[in-house]
Amino acid sequence: MSAIINNSFRKFQADNFIDSFTETNPDGSLRKNIYVAIGKNTEWSGNTNDNFSEFRVTDSINSTASDTNIPLPIDTVQAPFIHWDDIASIKKVTDVSHVIARYDWTSGTVYREYSHDRDDIIDNTNPAQVTQPIVAEAPFYVFTEDFRVYKCISNNNGAESIEKPTGASIGLTKTVADGYIWKFMYEVEQADVLKYLTSDWIPANSPAKANQVEQIAVEAAKLDGSIDHIKVIQGGSGYRSTVGNPVGGITASILPLQNAAAGSTTQVAEPVDDFYNGLSIYITSGPGSGQFRTITDYDGATRTASITPDWDANDLPTTNSVYIVAPIVSIDGTGGTQFPGGSGITARVSKLGVGGVVEQVSIVDRTPTPNTAYRRATATVVDGSGMGSELKVIINPFGGHGSDCVSELGGAFVMMNVRLRGRDGDGDFETGENAEFRKVHILVNPKESGGNREIATGPTYKASELQQDTGIMLYSEFRPPIFRSTDSTEDIKLVVEF
User: Model pTM?
Assistant: First the structure.
């Protein structure tokens, strides 16, 4: 028997942990009172044998722990008792957020395309396991200096990214210089920059908060069961295509193709009957831009294409329009048990290279027919007299790109932020001589000292105000010494992976 813990389970646990900070009892009190504890004002010392219940030292040369050779904590039954002896103060955690690994957009990097069959998206976006710019493990999303996050939908067949994605479009964004296609996911709000943004981590939340207008728009525009990318695996050869400007005589159902004068370098439509029959014609710019039609008959003598359906009567192409004639892409979509096969999405070959090689496929209409969804799909290049092409349909995540940025980008990491200011809590946090600390812990529901020994609910406590060894110690971190003074501020950011 074989099994795995799905990434969705890890995200589920991360969600539950965040929810635990606000869950209440019937009387309105918090069910979980979660604190950051600091302690240990003495230098690290000893070796693994001396401290087998608390830490181990892995440096074979310097086998004794010191403030420059920080030991590694270990998880034993006795360790929390030792840690409690060192605790000096605790402060309640009120700031918590999902975070994702930070990857700053860098010119010259080949970013990885999103793909539905990529295994273990969370561990493949863990900063400890991913090194740029190794293409095989390159990140599939980036963070820009505008505090925006973009997902890479297409890397233009493995090209280097040389143009930074910008804007907050609810659709897809293509960077002209490198041919990349990006999906804007969200912008980090300024309040979260101070609390959660580090050199390794970016805060993320979904659904969007009330003031995250751009992210709200992206989430509202989601299209479940759609397709945003069809990847060319093999380009084949011999596929027919032509581009140009229409000539005079355009009607609702006819488009005369370009016939260049002798000596012109402009591409010329072939003077052979039926040469482009069954291909698509797409208006790339100018009047009629965006219209996609099928050529039903081609007259070689007049270089005239008859199309179906008719052009939009209110947006007829003109001689100032630009067209491309190229093969149609047929998509065969299937759904789950409750969905019929996906339908309604159309695509076209948008770029052919020398020898009629298919280099790029573009989606024309990405809106699926109501009550259908593409959960699996295949695509083929239709007609064009070529052969040998192979396409791969990239299936979107449930809800569509941008519908849930946390789960889409690897939301198994949670950051807690606590800021300690001088003698925080009217002196609960000491400053001055012997006020340094080397240990940081997360404590859940420690109890107050005294006769009643109630669960601690206040914002801060010194160790003498708490009952020793109470509560649950979830996390332990060993650090070099942090020296505290009355004018110091320690911004403690702790990241937990689920």
Answer: 0.89
